[in-house]
Amino acid sequence: MRIFITGASGYVGGVVAEHLVGAGHEVVALARSDQARERVEGLGAKAVPGSLRDLDVLRGAAAAAEAVVHTAVDYADPDMGEIERDTLAALLDGLHDGGAFVYTSTGLVYPDRQGATVDEDHPVTPETSPQPYKVLGERQVLAAGHVAGTVIRAALVYGRGGSGLLQGLIGAGRQNGMVPYIGDGANEWSSVHVDDLAALYVAALEHREPGAVVNAASAERTPIRRIAEAVAGLTGAQAVSLTLEQAVAAMGPAVDALTRSSPMDASRARRLFGWAPERPGLIEELTTGSYAQS
Fold first, then answer.
1. In degrees rounded to 5, what are phi and psi of residue 228?
2. How far is CA 6 from CA 31, 110, 150, 170, in A?
3. Measured between alpha carbons, how far is residue 275 from residues 104, 156, 215, 227, 265 in Å?
4. Which of 101, 173, 183, 258 is deepest in the core (most CB within 10 A)?
5. How far apart are CA 249 and CA 203, in angstroms?
6. How far apart are the first and last CA of the chain?
7. Beta-carbon neighbour count of residue 89 at 10 Å?
8. For 28-79, how does the pLDDT look when each residue is reduced to its tens digit (9 = 90+)?
9. 95 in helix, strand or coil?
10. What is the value of pTM for the model shown?
């Protein structure tokens, strides 16, 4: 299958591209710089020069593909909502009737469930999500009736020494000698190894279920305090409890996400696609795996 992917020079997209190439697919990847081109070509993909703002490039690359995988995102860009909307419009416009489209969403679309497990049938709205444009992106993909759209809502992604959140905590531990968590840190998070997540993308493309929305998470639920303690052990720092007010003052309003607890039920992905996460768990990766070795 000829697959066009965005974000292949990044963390999740790079591993997804690697798995797709390994499964025998022809992968074409968007590359916005020479460095990105070298990265995606090193994975075995063919590079298409351009960025998410190059809508004609996106439309043409999608038109030449049998499937599209959209993983590119920049959560720090204040214009990302507008960029996401226009990017999806171009990709969906280009992709032919019956083509497959896999959209990368996040468990953060769910409202805070205060520890109650959430499945894909739980209502999500832009008003209750820390990532509202992901809710809107899901709707945009699923409303495109001419393509076989699938939405993957990923939990906290880890493995191969990556993840923005984990790298931020590791950096804080090394620089400041402390790794923060909020309150008692008992709020539990779901997580998924990046290689297990990539395997789900391959399965979703090879065994299409048009209109499917699936959670991607292992069965493990990890308290934020346990994550902070593992990172502290890795960096020789101390895990330190902060009040919410202290955390906001130190890290900004985005810290609100660290107080959430919406563990994810991923049984639908297992049922529809035969997906079976098998990589080491989050704490094992932090203490003896890729993070300890990096």
1. -60, -40
2. 8, 24, 16, 27
3. 17, 17, 11, 25, 13
4. 101
5. 43
6. 35
7. 15
8. 999 999 999 999 999 999 999 999 999 999 999 999 999 999 999 998 898 9
9. coil
10. 0.97
